[in-house]
Structures are given as structure tokens and as C-alpha cells.
Specification:
This protein is α+β, with helices and mostly antiparallel strands. Helix content is about 55%, strand content about 15%. A hairpin with a 2-residue loop joins β1 and β2.
């Protein structure tokens, strides 16, 4: 039979592992899909899967953590142990809130008010810049990749058809 001190240590370890796992499941999609970096199809799929499940995982982690904290708290005699429990819960509360935010939308805020510039006026585009060209119904539009790098998405109408340009 495991003594009380060993059970308490296991509870502390479980609490720390649960908090780290909850942080990882919320932070990993943000790390995998970074602006200014090429994404892979598999990376996007994994990120969206983790993003979709993170609200459920963090609520489950929060419930289990509150049970563990309550059990550890009731047996703690020292104030710093109780303070450590509260400090450990703070990042878990933060990621539980953050998992319900649309952080992909924050990262890749689409350009909604694109404006056209005549070729002679487009002095901000260098000859060596890569551009994404969309042609539809005889109308062609070029989007400088350097300017799209932050937003990733540009909503526009080309040749009378609504499009979303991305790279």
C-alpha cells in the first residue's frame, strides 16, 4: 500500500503533467502554423484537429486539476504549498480561456479592403518580388507575396467573381 506522502507526491506530479499537457495542446497549433513560415498539409490538419479538441481537453484538465488541488489543499499545512497550487492553476485557467478564442483568425487576419494600384504607381513592389497572380474572365490581378505574408488571406473580386487569395 502506498503511504500518504507518496500519494501526495503522485498527485502533485499528476497535476503538473495535466497542466503541461493542457498548455501543449493549446500552444502546439500556434507553433505548428506560424505566420511567415510555409505550412504543410499534415501540419495544418494536425493543428486544426488540436484546435478543435483543445476546449474539451482543457475543461477536462481543469476539472481533474480542481479535484487534485482540493485533495492536496486539504492535506497541506504550509501556506507556500497552497500558494503553489494557486500558481499552478493560473496557466491552466489561461489556456482554458485561450482555447475558446479563434487564435488562427488573430494570426491570419484577412485583408478585407484591398485596393488596386496601377503598374506605374506600384513602386512598393520590387522587380524581384514574387507575386501571386489570379486570372478570371480576362481580368488579372497580382498580389505581392511579401505583402500577403502576414495576412495569408485576401478577399477580392476578380473578373466579377468573389475569391479568397492565399498562398
Amino acid at each position: 500500500m502506498i503511504n500518504k506522502l507518496a500519494r501526495r507526491r503522485i498527485a502533485w506530479l499528476a497535476l503538473i503533467v495535466i497542466v503541461l499537457f493542457a498548455i501543449a495542446i493549446v500552444a502546439a497549433p500556434v507553433w505548428i502554423i506560424q505566420p511567415f513560415r510555409a505550412q504543410t498539409e499534415k501540419g495544418i490538419a494536425v493543428s486544426y484537429l488540436m484546435r478543435r479538441w483543445s476546449p474539451y481537453v482543457t475543461v477536462g484538465a481543469l476539472i481533474i486539476s480542481f479535484v487534485l488541488v482540493g485533495w492536496i489543499w486539504s492535506g497541506s499545512r504550509r501556506w507556500f504549498a497552497k500558494a503553489a497550487l494557486i500558481i499552478i492553476l493560473l496557466p491552466l485557467l489561461a489556456v482554458t480561456w485561450f482555447s475558446r478564442q479563434n487564435h488562427f483568425e488573430w494570426m491570419f487576419n484577412p485583408l478585407v479592403h484591398t485596393a488596386y494600384a496601377k503598374t506605374n504607381d506600384a513602386n512598393f513592389v520590387n522587380d524581384s518580388d514574387m507575386v501571386l497572380v489570379v486570372t478570371n474572365n480576362g481580368e488579372s490581378v497580382a498580389y505581392p507575396v511579401r505583402l500577403m505574408a502576414y495576412h495569408h488571406l485576401t478577399q477580392d473580386v476578380v473578373g466579377g467573381r468573389a475569391i479568397v487569395a492565399t498562398y
